[in-house]
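Same chain as my last thread, 497 residues:
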Amino acid sequence: AAADLYDRAWAFRGALLEACARLAAGEPEAARAPLDRAERLAEGLQRERLDTRSPARVLAQATFVEWRGLVHVGRLLEQLVAGADPGDPAVVAEALGVHTASLRTQALAALAPDSPFRSAPPVGGFDSLLGHVLSPLELVLGNPRLPAWPRPRSIEVRSAFYRALAGVAAREMPGFEPPDTDRTEPLDDPVRLQLLRSVREFYLLRVAREYSELESGDPQREVLQRLYFRLNAEKREGRDRELAGLRRLRYASERALEVVQLLNAEGRNDEARRVAERMLRDAEAEPDALAAAANALLLARIELALGSARMDQGEPVEAERILLGALERLEDLERGLRTRGATAAGLQTVVFERSRILIGLAVNANVRLLDPDKALAYFERAYALRRDDFTRVLLACYRARAGREDEARALLRQISVEPANYYNLACTHALLGDREIALDFLQRELTDNHFSAGSLAQQQEWAEADPDLESLRSVPRFQALVSMSFDEARELARRSN
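reply #2:
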């Protein structure tokens, strides 16, 4: 790479991706040299201090700081892959690096005139960094096809990674037991406390700037003025009030939900339930850590994960109770948002989550409670909220179940065949009497969508109990599919492709 900024930025990407490739191949020691190179490049780019040259380049400087955080993510992952404990001092140091880089990025983004936050509070958290397009965590552990990373190992390392982050910011990683460190509260750390104060101060500067640019009488001017006075009041009205305000600048991570979903897919429902229950307890213990709407969404998503775990454990009545509670929480939230004048676009996330919960209730009623009428009622409510290929396949399935064949086939002609729809397409065609097509889709589901023995066994068990596949039970090919081993499924996938 030449000395020019553009070339050095590409050299950083190359070094980080090389480190990810080494980790993906199960070679943590070989990842250290490219991580060292990426770190030197990121530090050099950060030292350019583009934010001091022009207000228009503040976000570019924030990108370089974020890249420094990605190196910490890579180093943290490398140490855990090599066998380190989440509480080891070297691991804690890298976890602190991840959190500090996240705070520095947030502070710069709060100051930028073209900030993505605009007039909204500059709330940040781990997830934007962990889910970055260059995040070693996602590039390595997010690929289920890597031979060095079977699903059980990926879950184990993910959980250790999140525990390490809980060890430096416990409130931001609900669901994970932090290791025994003295760094779990960022506001007890002078460096991180000052960074959070910088986020607030930079935000105050931007609010004041936006206020001064508006004409007298503009309604937004009054809103900004009230916001400015409130933020200033938090500084003056005692340490407790100030710290509560600073805590609200950081979102709680939703990474525990990812672990719950992976555990459920593996058939490890007891573990999934324990993680979900801990996440729910942690989130409920910190009600002031989030804005009310964000907190309600987070709690509803946790309850959806917990309800799914109960469903997979064969506890459909308890699953329905939990899911109905989540649905009521979101309905209350939506009513409150509408009262405050929220637009349809502003309600989109809440409506989507409601549809997911109603679909979960429909599946539970159909497969576990064996109550097709209740299942249909839940699904019709979901379909009224969300219309895409996923729900159209489900609608076709319900129409086929009701004997409305022409409607079901008309819907199927509108649908793109995607891996996420294989199983529901198998159910629909089985109900329509298309036995071989149904078996083809079931085979594609079992061979293409499951990358571990546990995940395959979970789906095979579900298929054996699913009333929609009743017409296939006595067919030898169905019996072979639901009883094949993981190695046999891999070989069948190889031959089919």
